[in-house]
Amino acid sequence: MPTPRHYLMCPPRYFAVDYAINPWMDPTQPVDRDLALAQWTRLRDTYRSFGHTVDEIEPQPGLPDMVFAANSGTVVDSQVLGSRFRAPERSAEAEHFRRWFVEHGYRDVIMPSKINEAEGDFAWTGRVLLAGTGFRTDPEAHAEAQEALGVPVVSLRLTDPRYYHLDTALFVLAEATDSAPAQVAYYPEAFSPGSRRVLARLFPDAVRADEADASCLGLNGVSDGHNVVLPGEATALAARLAERGYEPVLVDISELRKAGGGPKCCTLEIRK
After folding, report:
1. What is the spatial distance between Cα 2 and Cα 246, in angstroms, rounded to a whole number?
2. 183-186 and 207-208 as β-strands: parallel, antiparallel, unpaired?
3. What distance in Å separates the CA atoms of residue 249 and residue 230, rounded to the nearest whole number?
């Protein structure tokens, strides 16, 4: 069933690919900022059409990746854990998001001491926080998140550089409830053998994506428990989700994908 969600997003007013910090980024290729803004606007309006709340943070010049708001905070039960970026090009984003939370009533914002790229590498399942490492977030940040948020953390190792964040290889379809376990979709080949075994044990009924699903960033999806927003090319994944009773919603994020982002990258969830 769909549940109301609260999201924080950042318009891509200064979007560009001026540097390369993941395999998707190629500064020699042109970027259409107007198209990126149109795609982002449709994504935002899609959320609002489902009845979700979408707040916006003001973008800042010189921070072209600020549109990828998911990397800037993790919020569980109104507790905010900020971010600490690995790439110096993005480091200033963390303070802008910290100030937004403080100005909007979240007084106890914890800023990490370890490299922690927030919901890029953290996925809340309603019971445990799945935590990725291997390319961006430090393994030590997982323990720091457990202390800050007071939730159990399960570490997962990513091994394919194309899937440099957990949210490029896994997303939560439905959070756990008192009567039902969490449901997730993921791309097994993005993970180490041990992490695959952990995922199979935790989520035996998961939707397992294939290379075609993953290679268009199809696992960078956003679900409210019923409506599942996916990149437009993820048609096979959409069909499998529809068979499970979900309502796939395909959106065009082709311009934003030039920087390695998709629907989830643009969407920080605020869980109160």
Report:
1. 9
2. parallel
3. 6
Count Cβ atoms within 10 A of the Cβ of residue 36 and give its class: 0-12 exposed, 13-18 middle, 19 or more buried. buried
Handedness of CA 228, 162, 134, 60 (dihedral sign): negative
What CATH number was assigned to the domain covering residues 6-269?
A: 3.75.10.10
Q: Which residues are catalytic?
A: 165, 265
Kindly list the averaged pLDDT for each block of 10 residues, start to end, along the chain of length 272: 96 98 98 98 98 98 98 97 98 98 95 98 98 98 98 98 98 96 98 98 98 98 98 98 98 98 98 94
Q: How far apart are CA 247 and CA 164, in angstroms?
A: 27
Q: For position 70, what pLDDT does the model report?
A: 98
CA 121 to chain centre: 7
At 108 the pLDDT is: 86
Record the tokens describing residue 71, joined without a space: 């990397």
How much is the pLDDT for 20? 98
Residue 50: the pLDDT is 98
